[in-house]
Amino acid sequence: MAKQRVLLLGATGNTGESILNGLLEHGAYEVQILVRPSSAEKPAVKKIAERGVKVVIADINGPIEELVSIQKGIDVTVSAIDAQSQLSQMNLATAAKKAGVKRFVPCAWTSVAPPEGVMILRDHKEQVYNHIKRLYLPYTVIDVGFWHQVSFPTSLPSRRFDYAAMAPSNEVHGDGERPNIIGDLRDLGRWTARIIADERTLNKYVFTCSDVLSENQIYSIVEELTGEKLERNQISYEEIEAKVKEAKINGEKEPDNVMNRVMRFKADYDYSKYLRGDNQPEYAKYLGYLDARELYPDFRPITFREFVKDLLEGKIVKPHYDFL
Amino acid sequence: MAKQRVLLLGATGNTGESILNGLLEHGAYEVQILVRPSSAEKPAVKKIAERGVKVVIADINGPIEELVSIQKGIDVTVSAIDAQSQLSQMNLATAAKKAGVKRFVPCAWTSVAPPEGVMILRDHKEQVYNHIKRLYLPYTVIDVGFWHQVSFPTSLPSRRFDYAAMAPSNEVHGDGERPNIIGDLRDLGRWTARIIADERTLNKYVFTCSDVLSENQIYSIVEELTGEKLERNQISYEEIEAKVKEAKINGEKEPDNVMNRVMRFKADYDYSKYLRGDNQPEYAKYLGYLDARELYPDFRPITFREFVKDLLEGKIVKPHYDFL
Question: Which parts of the sequence belong to the NmrA-like domain (chains A, B) (predicted)?
């Protein structure tokens, strides 16, 4: 069988990097990466090119015709665009329809949440999904819960996990009992390689998952495997709600301030994951998601325990600062 | 087995009437109707009460506690509220969640269309669906295409169909070839009685259907069965688009003018059904709908041909003017 031709947008980000690795490792894909003109000379792009991946230069905010022409002959377009630029995917989707792309994978890659009114990031994604549905463009939405790489506490007396952490973390929200879908960033691309070759996932939402764990369970696993006692900073439900309120007010005052947006994303995540408890398999299924664990029973994801062992062995790479 | 307790909102409208008849005929339901205080003394309500149906008086814009209390012990709440009041369903849904209602059937009952940006009526419904999803309230969305009762031409030289028509109709849009899902208003409740007893339809969208016919096919069937030649008023795609534009401008100028809203609904329907071609089984399935014909292969819907025969025999009742 001929290899499926995939065009990947955002290949130098954390998500895109995992997708690229997963698709190349899988072997059934011929991957091209889409890069904006200003990034063409970046070392990260050059490195990918050296792996034999074709680099396509185009501005996704440029003319539609160019976006059509680069997607001609493409089977699957996969978008892992940065969180701030979700709406820029609209033209790419319009062009994908015109080019006859067989499956469009918009930028989801996040926790399970309702389509509207809970997380501003999800609201933006929903606008893209609705645009895709208006176009009658074949699609798959893939959500991955929360990464192990941003779900572990760093508050060990030894500080030996600091090397892999994007930010220090010692928070436990509410009673710490809300379970959440998590998964390893390194698995994200391996799941994707399975999902986009599967007819069952066409025009569907899918979630991937390694474990469903509460914060209390996460802290226990880390204490057990490190033999250290973790400091815990208790955040009440009232504080979660106050943070959302504050982030909304600041966002309205200065809508273009990137830090305000990042604070809003963080506040929304805490509200959705720990107060509402959205990011769980049962709710995902209620919302219409397929469970990747059921679709691919042979897939062995990296568990949180395995991740912590890797952390202890110094094997975890800190994600770049593009994740919000 | 104990009868399922259903609370029906909008029972005196065309859709609600069909639902009430379908549920009572089915036999497995104990139906209560929800009526606003100002309608309690209406003859149509009295007539329903005379059939042994319990009448519950409450204001759906009133206090939530009252809406909780009337839904305690209810298995299924079915809403067939008028088109202008879609957003008033929000509190009823909030209360349904608190009361432990096992299935909420919001007011859908229309043609298949994308969730956002094509029909303003669908946009309003989507806000209600999104509210339901935020609540994690079990639901079923039931769409029925377009009724036979508003899909037949009246432009016969004999004028013998005028008695059953809400408005004269002689339009053919574009090339007249766009197929549309249609169904008989009298079947709407019979379908509903099947769908709301079915675990497979929980948290799903379902469409019902008797025929999928283009306007040209509809005109041919009527000409064949009447032996008369129909007058046809050709409406171009450009005219459809111009009507939508005009209706949007008028709606923005006078948002509270009911006639403007009705004109907008009509323009949107024509745009969606005849220009975009949304109201078709394939697109419905793409959007995630289940096909009621596949779920209930033994269900024999009234076909459009049978409807036209009934029309000829004077058996069709003209719908009331609540349908938009």
Answer: 3-307
Q: What pLDDT is recorded for position B255? A: 84
How far is B116 from chain A, CA to nearest CA, in Å? 6
User: Looking at beta carbons, which residues of chain B come within 8 Å of A134?
Assistant: 114, 116-118
The whole domain housing A75 covers 4-143+184-207+278-301
Contact A151, A184 (CB under 8 A): no
Question: Per residue in B249-281, pLDDT tens?
Answer: 999 999 888 889 889 999 999 999 999 999 999
Q: Where are the beta strands (DSSP E) in chain B?
A: 4-9, 29-35, 54-57, 76-79, 103-105, 140-143, 146-147, 171-173, 180-183, 204-207, 211-213, 233-235, 289-291
Question: What mean pLDDT is predicted for residues A224-231?
Answer: 98
- The dihedrals phi and psi of B213, each to the nearest 5 degrees, come to -130, 145
**Residue A182 DSSP label:** E
Q: Which residue of B has its CA nearest to A128?
A: B116
- The β-bridge relationship of strands B146-147 and B204-207 is unpaired
Task: Report the candidate in A34, A108, A115 with the shortest Cα–Cα distance to residue A77.
Answer: A34
Mutate to test the interface with B, among A126, A133, A203 (most CBs of B within 10 A): A133
Judge whether B102 counts as a catalytic residue. Answer: no
Tens-level pLDDT at each residue, chain B (324 residues): 689 999 999 999 999 999 999 999 999 999 999 999 999 999 999 999 999 999 999 999 999 999 999 999 999 999 999 988 999 999 999 999 999 999 999 999 999 999 999 999 999 999 999 999 999 999 999 999 999 999 999 999 999 999 999 999 999 999 999 999 999 999 999 999 999 999 999 999 999 999 999 999 999 999 999 999 999 999 999 999 999 999 999 999 998 888 898 899 999 999 999 999 999 999 999 999 999 999 999 999 999 999 999 999 999 999 987 644
- Name the closest residue on chain A to residue B204, using Cα atoms: A288
Q: State the CB neighbour count (10 A cutoff) for residue B175.
A: 13
Q: Which sequence positions of A are flagged as catalytic?
A: 125
pLDDT in tens, B50-60: 999 999 999 99
Look at residue B256 in the predicted model and tell me its pLDDT. Answer: 85
B16 located within any domain:
yes
Write the CA distances from A87 to A10, B9, B120, integer angstroms. 14, 38, 21
**Residue A51: inside a domain, yes or no?**
yes
Q: How many CB atoms lie within 10 A of CB B256?
A: 7
**Strand, coil or helix: what is A32?**
strand
Cα distance from B203 to chain A (closest Cα, Å)?
Answer: 6
Which CATH number goes with the domain that contains B15?
3.40.50.720
SS3 B302: coil
- Interface with chain B: mutation pick from A136, A285, A290, highest number of B CBs within 10 Å: A136
Q: Which one from B42, B97, B102, B125 is the annotated catalytic residue? A: B125
- Is residue A85 domain-resident? yes
- The residue of chain B with its CA nearest to that of A286 is B203
Neighboring chain A residues of B138 at a CB cutoff of 8 Å:
286
User: How many domains would you assign to chain B?
Assistant: 1
**How many Å lie between the alpha carbon of B266 and the closest alpha carbon of chain A?**
19
From A115, A133, A136, residue closest to B133, measured CB to CB: A115
